[in-house]
């Protein structure tokens, strides 16, 4: 069973393509919810779909007991109606009942799910076969999807994608600045209504593969991953769709392979939904950690490298003032971990700023230049604070201690010109002159 | 032989009253299944009615939803821990309480941590953390017990297969909630209405925040077997919202919400029995109770609206009289 088989094999291709397409639709709508800060609405609405699924299946089994292959239409229709009712109920509670949206979401979720449970338990007695099919929808079961499903899901996913493509500009305006969108003549209310309908669509589409209970995860994970990587809305949409497709694909494959690997004899399947969510969540975690610019690892790296530079410059300054200090004396002045300190010394001697002479650290001629520049920046800034901004006392020194690491050569040039190339700082100490470019 | 067998809706209450009367007179007999149901559901309702108001006031209802999902992972982890340490069972009280504490800790730290360290917006962080942990819980349960139905049962509960041991667990959890809320009523009240004021008079907001989370986790645990972790949310939020329509005072609300929950459980169990005896239809009792809680809210809403309108029009009439 190669990876390629998952796309072509008549039994396997249904679930593969089906989950892939469904996950694209729900992750696209997830972007909209994410920027409206209403991710948890997805959670409530997907739970609210449950009674509809149950009712739809029971009506269908009552009227058309012979056409079992079309039951997914009943599932979709029922789910759509009941999650629409759920949406209306939430709005009604918020506006008429003056309930905070958080409590309204929670209450509607639980009550609708309760009604669904009652329906399902009735189903259990009347029609046990279809009852087990409904229970499958709680955690998603992709394995039984056929080609006709793919067609339907493909059409609906394409519809969602096309809609977003077509109304991208107005949608962007509505998402980021609703008042601006209103004033520039965009039919905001109509657009929002359509977006909510599409949201319901994509939520109920995902139910088949991800399941009622975990649908919120499918909505949120891809957009989190995508948001870390880019600041531009169309890239967020595009990347979210990619991540959604990837997690749908891998999750389904993992569920199939994992089930046959872990339970080779038993007729037991790993539920697809949790596997898809776990894949999506790991993608999102990777992106949260390692995304360039916004990822935690890169932010930490930037912070640490800044501290490292500060430490190096402080060591240079200390050496410049004393001309030759032993390691233990130098160590006393800097409160950092020993490893970090030794690393800084190592880097400094590698870069040729300092060298070790009879157990004492001294600056090289280049190092003297470099240290003088730091001191110069420090004293220039002190002078600027005292002369131009009227600061006094201890504050000046402390502020300059920080600013000396931040000021760029450009600042130095302008400060020199602004202060008329000064020779002494406010504490009457000479400002080292810039002799040559380093 | 279940004495409620074949009883209709009103007969149910008659039988219940006569059995309670007999019990008071000293005729002890073992509890029937319906009575265990009522007991467990009432305990859940009391615990929820005491904790729920604070959750809604602090706008943490969806956080409770998040907890109710992660509780599954908490229980699995606690089970792995206790079974290896002293051979505890999955539904022992100690395992359940450790699971509740674990779930509350993990959920709170992760949700907070994602906001703080990854700079995620709060709703996304909540949604991301609980779905991931729940998925993990489901996969672990399936792998460990080789039983795909346990996950379904955790979500749906099964109020129709309760034992006397479940009643005992539910009772202890209700007592725990009652005592904690009783002891720290003032602290909870102040920290949920005005966090800054609470801080200035020296109430540790972090401690009481976590205590509230822990209590909600125990509530979810207590309902794990009876109504399931999702339906318990209705017990947490519903009675409070209903009572809120009629009263503004917290102490009255804390009295009313458990009462409404108990009422709903009584009616729900009776209705479930009625449907079984008359129509031969065994329905999920937990689901029925939750539907009734929903119905209570809708009815109470229209009732309070009516009252409001009545008062308004009366005022108008009186004003007109004064004017003329």
How does this structure look, described?
The complex is a heterodimer of chains A (438) and B (324). By secondary structure, chain A is mainly α. Chain A folds into two domains: 5-291, ABC transporter involved in vitamin B12 uptake, BtuC (Orthogonal Bundle); 298-363, Arc Repressor Mutant, subunit A (Orthogonal Bundle). Chain A contains 19 helices and three strands. In chain A, strands 1-3-2 form a three-stranded antiparallel sheet. Chain B has one domain (32-323): ABC transporter involved in vitamin B12 uptake, BtuC, CATH 1.10.3470. In chain B, helix 2 (33-57) runs antiparallel to helix 10 and helix 10 crosses helix 11 (228-244).
Give me some keywords for this one.
heterodimer; A: 438 residues; mainly alpha; ABC transporter involved in vitamin B12 uptake, BtuC; Arc Repressor Mutant, subunit A; 2 domains; three-stranded antiparallel β-sheet; 19 helices; 3 strands; 75% helix; B: 324 residues; 13 helices
Layout of secondary structure:
The complex is a heterodimer of chains A (438) and B (324).
Chain A: H1 5-8, H2 13-35, H3 39-63, H4 71-95, H5 101-126, H6 128-139, H7 147-166, H8 168-176, H9 178-183, H10 188-210, H11 215-229, H12 233-262, H13 272-290, H14 296-322, E1 325-326, H15 327-333, H16 338-350, E2 354-357, E3 360-363, H17 365-387, H18 394-403, H19 409-418
Antiparallel strand pairs in A: 1-3, 2-3
Chain B: H1 9-25, H2 33-57, H3 61-85, H4 93-117, H5 122-145, H6 149-156, H7 164-183, H8 185-193, H9 195-200, H10 205-223, H11 228-244, H12 250-279, H13 285-323
Helix pairs in contact in B: 1-12, 2-7, 2-10, 2-11, 2-12, 3-4, 3-5, 3-10, 3-11, 4-5, 4-10, 6-11, 7-10, 10-11, 11-12, 11-13, 12-13
């Amino acid at each position: 069973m190669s990876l390629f088989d998952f796309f072509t094999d008549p039994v396997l291709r249904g679930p593969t393509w089906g989950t892939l397409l469904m996950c694209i639709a729900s992750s696209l709508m997830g972007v909209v919810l994410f920027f409206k800060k209403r991710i948890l609405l997805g959670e409530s609405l997907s739970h609210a779909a449950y009674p509809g699924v149950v009712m739809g299946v029971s009506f269908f089994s009552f009227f058309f007991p012979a056409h079992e292959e079309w039951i997914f239409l009943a599932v979709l229709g029922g789910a759509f109606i009941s999650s629409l009712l759920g949406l209306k109920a939430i709005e009604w509670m918020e506006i008429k009942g003056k309930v905070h949206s958080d409590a309204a979401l929670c209450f509607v979720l639980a009550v609708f799910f309760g009604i669904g449970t009652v329906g399902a338990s009735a189903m259990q007695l009347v029609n046990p076969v279809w009852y087990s099919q409904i229970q499958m929808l709680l955690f998603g079961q992709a394995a039984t999807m056929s080609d006709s499903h793919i067609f339907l899901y493909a059409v609906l996913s394409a519809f969602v994608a096309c809609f977003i493509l077509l109304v991208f500009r107005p949608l962007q305006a509505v998402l980021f600045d609703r008042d601006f969108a209103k004033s520039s003549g965009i039919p905001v209310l109509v657009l929002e209504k359509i977006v909510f309908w599409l949201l319901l669509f994509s939520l109920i589409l995902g139910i088949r593969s991800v399941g009622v209970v975990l649908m919120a995860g499918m909505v949120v994970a891809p957009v989190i991953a995508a948001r870390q990587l880019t600041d531009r809305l169309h890239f967020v949409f595009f990347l979210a769709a990619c991540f959604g497709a990837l997690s749908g694909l891998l999750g389904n494959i993992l569920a199939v392979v994992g089930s046959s690997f872990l339970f080779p004899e038993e007729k037991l399947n790993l539920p697809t939904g949790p596997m898809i969510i776990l894949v999506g969540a790991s993608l999102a975690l990777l992106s949260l950690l390692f995304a360039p610019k916004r990822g935690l690892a890169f932010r930490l790296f930037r912070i640490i490298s800044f501290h490292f530079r500060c430490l190096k410059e402080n060591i240079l300054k200390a050496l410049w003032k004393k001309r030759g200090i032993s390691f233990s004396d130098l160590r006393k002045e800097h409160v950092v971990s020993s490893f970090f300190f030794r690393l800084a010394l190592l880097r400094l001697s590698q870069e040729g700023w300092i060298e070790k002479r009879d157990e004492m650290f001294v600056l090289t001629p280049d190092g003297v230049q470099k240290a003088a520049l730091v001191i110069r920046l420090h004293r220039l800034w002190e002078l600027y604070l005292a002369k131009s901004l009227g600061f006094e006392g201890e504050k000046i020194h402390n502020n300059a201690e920080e600013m000396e690491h931040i000021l760029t050569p450009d600042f130095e040039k302008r400060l020199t010109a602004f202060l008329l190339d000064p020779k002494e700082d406010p504490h009457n100490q000479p400002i080292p002159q810039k002799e040559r470019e380093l | 032989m279940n004495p409620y067998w074949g009883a209709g809706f009103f007969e149910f209450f008659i039988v219940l009253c006569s059995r309670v009367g007999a019990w008071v007179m000293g005729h002890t007999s073992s509890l029937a299944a319906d009575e265990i149901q009522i007991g467990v559901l009432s305990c859940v309702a009391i615990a929820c009615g005491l904790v729920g108001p604070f959750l809604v006031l602090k706008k943490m209802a969806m956080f409770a939803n998040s907890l109710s999902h992660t509780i599954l992972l908490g229980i699995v982890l606690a089970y792995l821990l206790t079974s290896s340490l002293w051979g505890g069972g999955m539904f022992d009280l100690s395992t359940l309480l450790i699971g509740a504490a674990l779930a509350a800790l993990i959920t709170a730290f992760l949700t907070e941590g994602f906001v703080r360290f990854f700079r995620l917006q709060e709703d996304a962080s909540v949604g991301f953390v609980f779905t991931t942990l729940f998925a993990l819980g489901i996969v672990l349960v399936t792998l460990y017990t080789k039983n795909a139905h346990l996950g379904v049962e955790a979500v749906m509960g099964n109020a129709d297969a309760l034992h006397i041991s479940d009643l005992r667990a539910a009772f202890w959890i209700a007592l725990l909630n009652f005592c904690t809320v009783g002891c720290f009523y003032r602290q909870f009240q102040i920290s949920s209405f005005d966090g800054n004021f609470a801080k200035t008079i020296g109430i540790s907001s972090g401690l009481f925040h976590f205590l509230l989370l822990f209590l909600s986790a125990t509530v979810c645990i207590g309902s794990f077997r009876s109504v399931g972790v999702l339906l318990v949310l209705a017990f947490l939020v519903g009675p409070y919202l209903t009572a809120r329509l009629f009263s503004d005072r917290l102490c009255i609300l804390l009295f009313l919400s458990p009462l409404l929950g108990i009422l709903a459980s009584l009616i729900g169990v009776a209705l479930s029995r009625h449907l079984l005896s008359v129509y031969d239809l065994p329905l999920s009792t937990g689901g029925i109770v939750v539907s009734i809680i929903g119905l209570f809210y809708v009815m109470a809403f229209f009732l309070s609206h009516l009252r409001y309108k009545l008062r308004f029009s009366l005022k108008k009439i009186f004003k007109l009289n004064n004017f003329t």
